[in-house]
Amino acid sequence: NAGVTQTPKFQVLKTGQSMTLQCAQDMNHNSMYWYRQDPGMGLRLIYYSASEGTTDKGEVPNGYNVSRLNKREFSLRLESAAPSQTSVYFCASSDSRVSYTFGSGTRLTVV
Amino acid sequence: KQEVTQIPAALSVPEGENLVLNCSFTDSAIYNLQWFRQDPGKGLTSLLLIQSSQREQTSGRLNASLDKSSGRSTLYIAASQPGDSATYLCAVKRGGANSKLTFGKGITLSVRP
Question: Please, what is the average pLDDT of chain A?
Fold first, then answer.
């Protein structure tokens, strides 16, 4: 089925560990996004990529890095995880006038 | 900076009731507005997309309206069902086609049998 695939679905990290969240879309969308969702804070944009080869900071980029590997894939890396990065992470893709398509999320706990 | 507000944060209604969910935004220069549904522990599903030139969109029992001049959108759900219980989020895209979405915090709806 067409859509946005995120891996892993769940992850527990110790403070200071690193990890990469993977995201892939098969809808040939130009734009891809990483959001985090926290209780009471709503969805906040971490980084986005308007097209292959470009990335830009969103609202809360500190502590994260991204790579737009190709048109399909957009990964999010935590170099040194902190408890404040415990959250649910969503990847999304879109193209001009169409609606966003979201992945099912990655639930990350940093202990 | 665009701000999107959804009030109230939670709503509980009996089955069968027609209801309206409200969304307000501060910058009327929007490109489009979208309504999403999120079930507990799940991702977001797009319900309706309204372009800035449109006034409303309909899908089944759902109708979304847009009034850019007043900075408001409403999502109307007809004949609510327990299966409609979820969180409904409003999001606006301002500027051009490649600009980003700004989300409201959502309204958690509970439809009682």
Answer: 93
Is A33 part of the contact surface with chain B (CB cutoff 8 Å)?
A: yes
Q: DSSP label at A73?
A: B
Task: Give me the residues of chain A with pLDDT under 50, please.
Answer: none
Q: Determine the residue type at A60.
A: V
Mean pLDDT over the full length of chain B: 93
Both tokens of B39, joined, read 């079930």
At residue B21, the pLDDT reads 97
With 0-12 / 13-18 / 19 or more C-beta atoms within 10 angstroms meaning exposed / middle / buried, residue B76 is middle
Cβ distance A102 to B44 less than 8 Å, yes or no, reads yes
Residue of A nearest to B5 (CA): A42
- pLDDT-derived band at B96 (thresholds 50, 70, 90) equals low
CA distance B54 to B46: 17
Return all residues near A93 (Cβ < 8 A) that are at least 6 apart: A4, A25, A27, A29, A31, A32, A33, A74, A100, A101
Contact B51 A97 (CB under 8 A): yes
B100 confidence band (pLDDT: 50, 70, 90)? confident
